[in-house]
Amino acid sequence: MMQSTKKILSALDLKPFRFSPPLFLSILLFIIIVIGTLLLKLPISTVHPISWLDALFLSTSASTVTGLSPFETGQTFTFFGQIVLMLLIQVGGIGVMAFAVFFVILLGKKVSIRQRQLMQEALNVPSIGGVIRLVSWILIFSFVIELIGTFFLAFRFVPEFGWGKGLYYGLFHSISGFNQAGFSLFPGSMSQYIGDPIVNLTMIMMITLGGIGFTVLAELLSTHRYHKLSLHAQVMITGTLIINVIGVLAIFIIEYANPHTLGPLSIGNKFWAAFFQGISPRTAGLTTIDPAGLSQASLLLTMLMMFIGAGSTSTSGGIKLTTFMIIIAQVFTFLKGRREVVINKRTVNHQVIVRAVSIISISVIVVLLAVFLLCLSENQPFVVILFEVISAFGTAGESIGATAHLSAFGKIVIMCVMFFGKVGPLTLAFSVTKRSHVDIRYPDGEIYTG
């Protein structure tokens, strides 16, 4: 056992390999997916046998904390299979490198510079300084928050299912919510608790804390004054409040009389349903109403929220909220005729803007390519296909009916999009390209745009 542990640690040090950190992180995630596939294919994992492709699809969906599934989780997987899914969600959400470094620390080993570089890449932080302290804090904070979520959910689930099953259901949904996974053990996601304040508030709390980003949470715990926060934290908090309020109000107004969603509900349940649906799709994918019943305007809004996603260094996918906010700021700067992007009296570095534009450009290309391929292979409406692809890219996990009817080729396309959405546009791009620094500068050229 000790010898195998040493081999794993030496592999993590990257000495035998010449992989770049982005490529190595992608390979680690792929290995987790393969292990998950093997475990989910075991006879003890499912109530009835599933194909290798479905096992791979579910493992990818759980490891990338997406939540898309061709069947109901609670009715298809045994207790063992559900535990496998829960572990994949936990490792995929917090990050395999975070757990690897944590075990290195537990074994009393020194964390090398290369391992610190990997963690810097995995957490998307600007420097390796303090990265190990951040990893330890992330793991401890995540476990504590998930236990708190389990505690509150137990008030609803224990009286309904008993102590053992109630606590287990609370833990599963707490982990799924905090890691933005979208998996639920109930038929129809969380629809049977559409008007339950305890379940709604607890799950939204888990989703928000998991989606705002670990670095922002660390800053909030260290200081309670908004003006002392970093620009990233200020943008993230402000952006989260704005987009959540817009999402909730828009869903409430648009769907108020829709007979397929909020229409038949009481005014109190309308509020809770709009509250949940306006926040959850951006990151988590858990629902209390059937997304297939949403109007076209709400579907478009939901797709936009899923594409944006949550915050950097969070457990979710998408282009990230800060990326979206930077592009909006850039547009306003251009319209005002200014040269520099300024947010809260701070100038945004030009390289950050270039990075944001690159992220959105690569993401749009990948989404359009996936939609094109699915339009060729699937006999489903365009809106359904577009919704499925954006949900996979944003690792949101919402579906309006496409997942259960995907062909083998369609499942492979969606799996690739889920992997891309979790790893990140630039990380995956840097994995397959070689970065070079060129000091030569060529003369300016004129290109007409607009």
TrEMBL record:
Lineage, highest ranks first: Bacteria, Bacillati, Bacillota, Bacilli, Bacillales
One annotated GO molecular function: potassium:chloride symporter activity
One Pfam family cited in the UniProt record for this chain: TrkH
Protein name: Trk system potassium uptake protein TrkH
InterPro entries named among the record's database cross-references: Cat_transpt, TrkH
Organism: Sporolactobacillus nakayamae
Residue intervals passing through the bilayer: 20-40, 52-71, 83-107, 128-155, 198-221, 233-254, 317-335, 356-376, 412-432
GO annotation, cellular component aspect: plasma membrane
Alphabetized UniProt keyword annotations: Cell membrane, Ion transport, Membrane, Potassium, Potassium transport, Transmembrane, Transmembrane helix, Transport
Superkingdom field: Bacteria
Coiled-coil segments: none
Compartments where located: Cell membrane
Protein topology in the membrane: Multi-pass membrane protein
